[in-house]
Amino acid sequence: MIAFLTGRVAARGAGTAVIDVGGVGMTVQCTPSALSRLRVGETGTVATSLVVREESLTLFGFADDEEKHMFEQVQTASGVGPRLALAMVSVHSPAGLRHAVATEDTAALTRVPGIGKKGAQRIVLELAGKLEGPILTDGTLPGTAEPAPAPDDAWRGKVVSGLVNLGWSAKDAETAASAVAAEAEDTADVAVLLRSALRRLSRA
């Protein structure tokens, strides 16, 4: 089990990063919040979960252990594989997912690309009482640090890349990114802007 990686960030693309660990380039499929903390040429750390398949070994990267733990927990629901689990923790924070399941908020879950109404109902039923961690009244976790903001307009490319990686077309991704541009004046937090863009796409 590879619990985390620390090394020089060699590259960063649409939903992925390559981290040089001791001269070996490790490709990691990352959440937007994890990507927002990585800078090419600088040393970065991501919590990781290794998914082993007969034909592949895939590393998934997260901003912290809580995000990683939620990724692993939601996969205990039938029909939720690694890709859908990654989309879930990309659209919602761990606290947000706990809150959605605890309050049976299926509408929140259907904002995740790949989850329909029936799928959301099944996920709520199967994960009820299984997602660990306290929930505050505002849906946040005590002591949870805010993701580091992305500089300048770097958020736009990351939001577009994140949306494309989650299954949206490049055209739709660009339109959604433009729609949240006003919000970027108040925050350059890629995870926040990505979730806002996804909500707009889900309503379209």
Key traits:
OB fold (Dihydrolipoamide Acetyltransferase, E2P); 5-stranded mixed barrel; Helicase, Ruva Protein, domain 3; 9 helices; DNA polymerase, domain 1; 3 domains; 20% strand; 204 residues; alpha+beta; globular
Structure description:
It is built from nine helices and five strands. It has about 200 residues and is an alpha+beta fold. It folds into three domains: about 60 residues, Beta Barrel (OB fold (Dihydrolipoamide Acetyltransferase, E2P)), CATH 2.40.50; about 60 residues, 5' to 3' exonuclease, C-terminal subdomain (DNA polymerase, domain 1, Orthogonal Bundle); about 50 residues, Orthogonal Bundle (Helicase, Ruva Protein, domain 3), CATH 1.10.8. Strands 1-2-3-5-4 form a five-stranded mixed beta barrel. The longest helix has 14 residues. The protein is globular.
